[in-house]
Amino acid sequence: MLLKCWPVFAVSVTVCLWPMFAMAQESDLTSVPEIAVPLNGADIAWMLTSSALVLMMTAPGLAMFYGGLVRKKNILGVMMQCVFLMGIMSLVWSLWGYSLVFSGDLGGLGLIGDLGFAGLHGVIPTWENGQQVVPQFLTIPRSVHMIFNMMFFIITPALICGAFAERMKFGSMVLFSVLWGTFVYCPVAHWVWSDYGWCSEFNKSAAFQAFDFAGGTVVHVTSGFSALVCAVLLGKRLGFGHEPMPPHNLTYTCIGAALLWVGWFGFNAGSAGAASAVAANAFVATHLAAAAGTVAWAVIEWIIRGKPSILGACSGAVAGLVCITPASGSCTPIAGIILGLSAGIVCYYFCTKFKNRYGYDDTLDAFGIHGVGGVLGALLTGVFASKSITGDASKCGLLEGNPEQVMEQAVAIAASITLAVFGTFIILKLVDSVLGLRVNQAGELQGLDIDQHGEEGYIFY
Amino acid sequence: MKKIEAVIRHFKLEEVKDALMEAGVQGMTVTEVRGFGRQKGQKEQYRGAEYTVDFLPKAKMEVVVADDQVKSVVETIVRSARTGQIGDGKIFVTDLDEIVRIRTGESGPEAI
User: Can you give the C-alpha Rg of chain A in angstroms?
Assistant: First the structure.
């Protein structure tokens, strides 16, 4: 099947690599005129550390969190998805991803960047006129800004894998992720984080200014809603609904959740771009939201089912962390507690009652936690944003007399969902026509580890 | 020569082993198994999914004895493995055609 489709591959690869050949083309808007601020060692140290923490969230964090939740025969399938995405998405980001998000603005509408930074041109140091030139992003080298954001580009498609675990062809997942990253993630990230984005808080002339500190919309809403589309289009696993499919190793899931919690400090506090008071607030708010989410979900289970579970506690922690993601740079830690509690309760509902009512097989609750938690967090950011944290009287939310912020949040959310849903649908149909989506029945029954990778996860005699 | 297989509760393993050794049984083989008889499955819940897991973890113990020891060994196992609740397990006694000790090559009742 793969060999039959080589012309399609050849064309797509050429199209995707074209930016490298067109690198000579400079844009007037390659970057915002940079004020000559000195590099700051503390900021660089923190941002490098944060980058490492966020990468750790993909593997071993997510790899173990998701890995423990699937059946034994599919553990390597999950882990391979995470690890390979670390490889392929890093390459895509350096070649054109970073540029599409952060370089200028193609078309002037705040929809997508240009190719000024393609192939890391203008991102890494050069030697000009007898001296070293280090491109900067505020107080850090631009390469640090690039690598930090790369880790977000990696983990977002990895989150979607939760929806189609145990049944998606590996090659199809790879092609899907590359296209999704380019045509869904990059535009949304540009809208929300670039200096020219149409709903970016960094764009003074934007009609809407949404607060998304660390990626509530960019990462969680997009991946969560895309996950729902994937779950529906790929269909349910064989035996879903009548065969027991309990997690094969909740000890891994617990370890993975802990790694996610710790890694999230890099995800949120690192989004300050500096070792600053805002980073400190993000760190504290993040932790309290996780704490509140853990307690909330476990207590709900305690009340409703009689026993609090480790899976519930871990899920609650992750839900709280998702929820605080967009809010961590503008809301107080006490608001973080409220967000964590809300996420624990609301995500619990979507992962149980709602999911069972509609019967879709979102295997690892990518929609229930990331999609729902992301929307909740992004909206509540509009409620709780405080000038005491942002340091800017015009940047606050409903509780401080700026109810319009909730509307601006809603606009960004709606746009992200729209692109995620339609983009995912189109990309899935495209991938399906070229490679197919699901493994065949025999392969699914045997398990992806053998069928897709020729390996066994556990060989115990 | 007879083979005695006993499917028992996990936590009874040490007690049964000690009782058997006191009764003169020299060796045994233990495996982890899953199974059920009249004991109902246990309910487990994982996020939104509730399962009744029918296959319950048990331990299977195998010992080999001379014909004249079968009755006392079976009684020893029953006594030490019983709790009185459904799920205590079962014992199966089968005839053995041959036993060989690998180290020495001995066979028959001397190899027990």
Answer: 21
